Amino acid sequence: MAGRIRASDIEEVKRRTNLADLVGDYVTLKNAGIDSMKGLCPFHDERSPSFHVRPALGYYHCFGCGESGDAFTFLQRMDHLTFAESVERLAARIHYGLTYEEGSFAREDGPNRARLLAANTAAAEFFIAQLASGEAEAARKFLTQRGFDGAACERFGVGYAPRGWDGMTGHLRGLGYTPQELVQSGLASEGQRGAYDRFRGRIVWPIRDTSGQTLGFGARKLYDDDNGPKYLNTPESPVYHKSQVLYGLDLAKRAISRGKRAVVVEGYTDVMACHLAGVEAAVATCGTAFGKDHIAVLRRIMGDDAAAEVVFTFDPDEAGQKAALRAFSEEKRFTAQTYVAVAPEGLDPSDLRQHRGDEAVRELFTRKVPLFEFALRQAIARFDLNSVEGRVAALREAAPIIAQIKDPSLRPGYTRELARMLGSELAEVQHAVRGAERAPRGDDRGTRSRSHQSVDPNAAASVEAGRYVREAGPASPPARRIGLSSLRNTPTTWLERDALMAMLQQGESIGLELLQQAVTAQVMDRDLRVVRDAIGGALPALGTPEWWDTVLGGAPETHHGLIRELGMAPMPQRNAGQLAAYSRDVVVSLLDRDLVELKRELLARHQRIGDSGDPRARQIQQQLVALESARRSLRAE
To answer: What are 8-21's pLDDT values in tens digits?
Structure first.
């Protein structure tokens, strides 16, 4: 077993890793100021971006849920890795060789995620190689008939699983993987005579995450004597969770982020057809219905732009109708506009490309219709509108769909359209829609309640004009979270907050001498006073890699979130050339406030004495002169 990773290697991997590039594999980031980027938090559901990344600092922080950390922490949280596995992953990413020391610690119990991912990678390579074998002729014929040549198969990593009992299992065991690891990864099943291949005699597609790691596989049967399902996927495993993966996202993520459009199709060959036709934002679910976790994945890639689009394709059969209604039931989780594209004669994108070419696939998505309109027509199509009973049942089914349209200005128009489609009185349809608007709708009841509670009316404190919206916690009142949003919204607090932010982020630019004065300045806010004292205790570490951790170590854990937010929030000064000057100015303003307060106190004492000839009055005048000199000197610096 490998030993402990050398500490200097860990620091070097951290130093060489570009945190913005790493996070960008999971979240679309936008510029938010000098050395600051922001996007939708990958750790909680939110509508307004509150997740900030500071590439130069090497830290991230979410002002909504409080999650923060470095590149190692991010990978641990996102991909459920141990610390050692996150270091190994990042080292492999930057092609850095790690050194392991003797006297190793024992890894935690449970499956080694890195080993399972490596097994999947080895299996993908095995399947790709098998596609060129003589046995795979039926697979090559299937793919060629559908317009997928060798280059297309290589692009998507398509492979072939041999018909034998344990061809893949034997190959991977020869590479050092144990039967337990193969079963845990979902590559093999456990039988009375040991582990055997899960995928046999099938075309295989690798299912990857946004960073390109193979998490699992989807496989289609080829032979009539195969009694298994038409499509077989990797089962749930420590690395594969079907409700959280989208086939093709590793290839589509940049097109989705750039074009603010995602296309959701129904099969692996549909994704291939779309990409090859130039619709490179296409993805597909893997053996499960499109749900809220998929929405969260897409939102992190697209961002929450109201002009963004998500276009679904559904088969025109009953299963497709159910899928459309399921998608519509989750539609409110999107800020983006949602549409449906249905090909002529009900062809899916793969068949459409095969029979009518690439142009027909591209045109398919220009003929999209709003998802709610499609859901409305599908809902009433099941009823006999020539009977009173049928019209009443159709109205009962369709009214909630109109009531759930996100844009209220569209509801009256679609209410009239529904009345026309049903041949019913407009007033009758309006009454049904209003009733549906008032009625709670299953799961939506909880969603609506949570979304209304999620806005903290006091979350107004932020340097970015700002408001950061905190997601709601449990129903019972949570303990007070100390962060920017918990600070008082007063000019006094604003100055203290901005000065401490400058001291944390631009300490070297401000200079040790000025900082030593600043940490003695009066701070009225009790929580910011804790931060000031932590900075004062950490001054010997200024300019070293330990600065950040030393500040945190000097404060109680209850205030770590506030310190991280002060250290991560974008500075109000967006001009890099003026940032150092701004930082010194705001710190000087904090010190000057003390001097102004002292001047006010001296003037009040002088006034109470009354007699300017009194020695005490002359002493105060001398102090006032010295005070003004100190203020001018401070400003001159």
So the answer is: 999 999 989 999 99
